[in-house]
Amino acid sequence: MNGQSRLSILVTWELRGGSGHLMRLRPIVEQLARRGHHVTLAVSDLIRAQQFFPDLACLQSPQRPGQNPGFPQFASLGEILHHAGFNDLGMVKRLCAAWQAIGELVRPDVVVMHFSPMALLAFQAIPVRRVLIDNGYSHPTATPRMPDLRPWQRGYVELQDGIEEDILQTINAYLVEQNREPVAELPALFRRVDSINLMTLPELDHTGPKRHVHYRGYVEPGGPPPPWPESGARPRVLVYLRPFAGIGELLLRLGGMRWAILAIVPGHDQQLKARLAGVSNLHLTEALCDLHLAARQADLAVCAGGDTVGIMLLGATPVCMVPYNAEQYLTAWRAEKTGAAVTAGSPSRLPPRSDEIITALNRLIGNPDYRDRASEFAARYKDIDPARELSAIIAEIEGEGFP
User: Dihedral sign, CA of 167, 169, 172, 173?
Assistant: First the structure.
């Protein structure tokens, strides 16, 4: 902190694709800008970030050449880091130098990092405030080894240990060159920050509850009220899914059950719209609504995973999860343990078939225990307020002593 009344803040997002990361950051970035801070973004998906933040400066985050933004098959965070170039000292030096060049350009007082491990390493050598905004998938536990991202299957411990040892040696070689203390184990790098804020809850943390973090829940922007069909039918079922091969069949079968279906399907085509045009108890839209309000109004929810699962459970709404990839299946694996959710399909075949989804939904409909467990979950976190958590995150970014 340099004592100035307004701060220069660099917000980074380095790994993985998808608009969910930007949606997680948007309320934080917008609040910082409203408070008069100078905010610059360096992000994995530059075009999409410019659409989300048209009035802010957006830069492309440094990437290893040929890097695939998705990691659905990787078994650990160590494998993801390996894929990002952390096993190659020359690559680490080049990418860290690129991050430091962005730092020279922006001159940040604070760096807010979301799934940005190379930026985290690069800014160890620069005297700035470092704040992490992550979730359980991208932030490790306080243990010697990186957490398993596929706990439902047999792991290859020796292979993972070898990967992590290579990365640890590379990171420490870089830190020593930068006159910084090496780390004893790989997860310790992720704790060399001023504040860690996880956008999830302990029960839904991908890799298990952690003690060294702030759990913030979900602070996604509200949006308009949910446009439920006017039929008045019950139960009300919220469907929030991306298009996949069986989504038309799924929505037709749901509509045939005469439930009131609100189907949010971003990116759906005209063919799907025409196919569902005659289903009066189903409203199809691409536009996202206030999910917190939808959770309080719905009787059931169908979603792929991610933050939507937690938002629904906080609204006491049981969830049928339709994971598309291993990360979403990991969320489902955790959510099922609450007793308030079921998962359609299996990790060997994603996404599941429409009949598997209907079967899982019928389990929710036919068993009131799921509703009871969802109500218990919501009661446990009844004092969580998204606005208050957002204010707490902003306070962590601004640091003590900010006017």
Answer: negative
d(CA 217, CA 133) in angstroms, rounded, equals 12
Token pair, residue 154, equals 């047999």
Strand locations in 54-122 (E): 57-60, 110-114
18 contacts: CB under 8 Å, gap ≥ 6? 45
Which run of H or of E encompasses 369?
helix 368-380
Strand 110-114 and strand 57-60: the pairing is: unpaired
Residues 256 and 182 in one domain: no
Q: What band does 300 get if pLDDT is binned at 50, 70 and 90?
A: very high
* Contact assessment for residue 228 and residue 260, using Cβ atoms and an 8 Å cutoff: yes
Looking at residue 278, the DSSP 8-state letter turns out to be T
Closest by Cα among 132, 98, 92, 94 to 115: 132
Q: What is the mean pLDDT of the chain?
A: 91
Write down the residue that tokens 């969802």 correspond to: 374
Q: Are residues 207 and 267 in the same domain?
A: no
Instruction: For residues 368 and 392, state if they share a domain.
Output: no
Chain position carrying tokens 């959770």: 295
Indicate the Cα dihedral angle 389, 392, 397, 402, nearest 10°.
Answer: 150
Q: Domain holding 309: CATH number?
A: 3.40.50.2000
Distances (CA, A) of 287 to 227, 265, 269, 305, 324: 10, 8, 14, 18, 20
> b/e map of 180-212 (b: 16 or more CB within 10 Å)?
eeebeebbbbbeebebbbbbbbebbbbbeebee
Nearest one of 325, 322, 319, 320 to 353, comparing CA atoms: 322
Q: Quick one: which H or E segment has residue 360?
A: helix 354-366
Number of residues that this document lists for the chain: 403
Provide the percentage of residues in the chain whose pLDDT is more than 70. Answer: 96
Helix (H, G, I), strand (E, B) or coil at 231: coil
Tokens standing for 69?
Answer: 């933004």
Domain containing 209 equals 8-217+385-398
Report the pLDDT averaged over residues 315-321.
Answer: 97
Amino acid at 359: T
Confidence of residue 403 (pLDDT cuts 50, 70, 90): very low
Section 291-299 average pLDDT: 95
Q: Cα–Cα distance between 392 and 390 in angstroms, integer?
A: 5
54 residue type, one letter = P
Residue 193 within a domain: yes
